[in-house]
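Expect sequence, tokenised fold; for instance:
***
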Amino acid sequence: MSLSSDASPSLRVVFLGTPLFAATCLEQLLQSRHEVVGVVTAPDRPAGRGRSLRASDVKKVALQHNLPLAQPEKLKDETFHDQLDAWNADLGVVVAFRMLPEVVWNRPRLGTINLHGSLLPQYRGAAPIHWAVLNGETTTGASTFLLKHEIDTGHVLDRVEIPIEPDDTTGVVHDRLLEAGKHLLVRSIDALAEGTANPVPQESLLEDGVIPKEAPKLFKDHGRIDWSRPAEDIHNQIRGLNPFPGAWTTLPSGDTLRVHASERTDADFGGQPGTVHVSKDTLSVSCGTGTLSLTRIQPQGKPAMPVKDFLNGLRNPIRILG
């Protein structure tokens, strides 16, 4: 693969992605000087109560702009490979798509790059934004890198850093990162086209002795609140899993109570972890260390609501959670 200066200033790009994050990046790319010669996205899937087939956000953008489209069930299918060859792309661009086999990512002349939602090599994996918030990071960012065999390990082309505020949710950070990431992506493609790209090994971006944190896929049990943990950690869990998959605890009845938002408080009511303290319109919970005030919750089978509304409709007092 050559990154020399004889590359065309305008590249033929095949774009691979599925969700809104990817669709927004595709729209940004369409405003650049580069030509999107083909789009690859997931097949339509049943969704909603009626289970009707729903197109991905990337497919919707592709159709709006009359772009050639492929929706392969299997990425190793030869018919799909023939389609890629017919597009004759200089570069593959991946944003929020499934893992690609080498026979796909190595097809374009310059290979394939990926936009990842972290400052690589930190937070390699499926949920980088979630884990940065879960771990209480104060900064994160986006990286572009060249694909290679091992997932999220290729040489980094460029990075951009953004802040994480103390009460930011994953949803808020996602939107902030998307705005920064879409411009980073086009900047990286420009550099490849101009021959000015300088890919660097991820290991060179680590300080001596620092071990990269991972960002594995999240499951429902990641949302279970353990009230014996410090209040700060639980606050990070609640905002890190908002809007999905969500933090939750259980009521004495056994019903699930989803916790959408919380506030740190200096109050110290004592009591065992999980002990509930109600005062007027507030609901606070004792943690392993400190106390956390819950501000927005969702009782089982009901919509999300402010804690004030929940307390107004409460028939029996709650003494403990979890």
In short: The domain at 220-312 is CATH 3.10.25.10 (Methionyl-tRNA Fmet Formyltransferase; Chain A, domain 2). The longest helix spans residues 170-194.
